[in-house]
Design a protein that fits this description.
single chain; alpha/beta; TIM Barrel; 8-stranded parallel beta barrel; 8 strands; binds 3-methyl-2-oxobutanoic acid
Length: 263
Amino acid sequence: MNGLNFVLAKKSRGEKIAMLTAYDYSMAVLLEKSGVDIILVGDSLANVVLGLDSTVQVGMEVMLHHTRAVLRGAIQTPVVADMPFEAYQPEGADALFHARRFMDIGCAAVKVEWFGRCLDVVELLVKAGVPVVGHIGLTPQTAEQLGGFKVQGRDAASAEAIKEQAMSLERAGCLALVLECVPETLAQAITRGLKIPTIGIGAGKHCDGQVLVVHDLLGFNNRKVPKFAKKYADLGAVIETAARQYTQEVKTGEFPGQEHSFR
Ligand code: KIV
């Protein structure tokens, strides 16, 4: 298991941190080859892999199943697992039991989203020696309470509240913070004010690192892609074209050819 302590050194050297999500073995192997610093098994797998509407719909068993697959492919790269809603939000005391299940299979840390009793949960985990990444700004598990999937911290009061959350999570022992969908200037102020690194998604360029959902980056997301995601490839089109060609060749008898057959 590779730890996450290197992120603090990266921040102090001014080196950016690159994190991407993965949900299976093959993707983890490729991301590791790419040199990405951290792989996140995000509960976004609810949306991009399972076709569900909300991340709240994935639970521990599904997260563990995908995290194990990612860990088989990510030999050197630290893997962070998202704590699913059911593991800590209804009952904070369950958090340690579930976090340990991720740590026991080889994760470097768990990620928890901000909610009313977030600090209690983080303190519980940190005291027990579990490395924790916090997640503030737009927190999809409680997006309804935030008025939906919108940029957070646009007015002075909510910006102040998010800054407070950031500082309290650092004090509680988080080793990094994901900042999702907040104005660039707010992310910059938070990043400057913290010793621990910020990893932005829709939070502008001043964060200490960036994270994207890998399906968005690859053009492999059949759903609405957020404005902040940059598409580096069009894998969706590549897959569709390949599958169409295969279907045609099966129908015309062109596939399988002699070279794909045994004599
Ligand atoms: O679930 C996820 O993929 C995440 C990232 C978007 C940060 O939490």
